[in-house]
Amino acid sequence: MYGWRGRIGAIVSPPNTVVECEFAQMAPEGVSVHAARLGRPPGAEGPLTGDSVLQTNADLPRAASSLAELRLDVVVFAHTAGSMLGGIEYDQELISMLEETVGCPAVTTASAAVAVLNRAGVRRLALSTPYPEEMTVKEAQFLQQAIPSLEVVSQRSMGTDTGIAIGDMSPQAAYREAQKIDTSGADALFLSGTNWRTIEVIAAMEADLGLPVFTANQVTMWAAMEQLKVAAKKGFGSLLD
Length: 241
Hints:
alpha/beta; four-stranded parallel sheet
């Protein structure tokens, strides 16, 4: 059967074209990935904003319930901004709802990022996102509140105004952004955005920048593997290697 070592459920945002593809590449043999997609409620259409992201989360219980019959081993909400923008308590509420609805442990990309940064002992972080500036600022605030010893020493926003446009970017766009952000005072670089293609270029970024690089789908897969107690598939940055 598919998923004989473990089954992952992944809930993604309406325009996300990247999570399923990157998760499939990172999944070890015997681990299967099964996706559900949020619907866009009336009034949440248009440019990418924090409000539109949180409005779309109203469909999260329905999306979660659609996975309940799969006997999953872990469910992930693969949407960095989807819980970071609501704050720490909101993120924990989403995790509790997912676990109750699906009947298995749950991970959000936000909680995965916090776990990875804590595990790696990162105290000074460079943050790069494809989002508008206001969303990047709120993500920096979330991470610093979740990890009081952490300081976001530099941050950079691409200002992409739609989710579908983020998913259409090549991995090389992520590499170029990593070259533009100031990492001179940072312990690590975090590239936020599960709809941002990154996994093909993590190793090149780490080699050229000389520091650990964490990306949204990479940290989410790491957290899922921790729940499954399955060794991660190598080749996607030092975190999984």
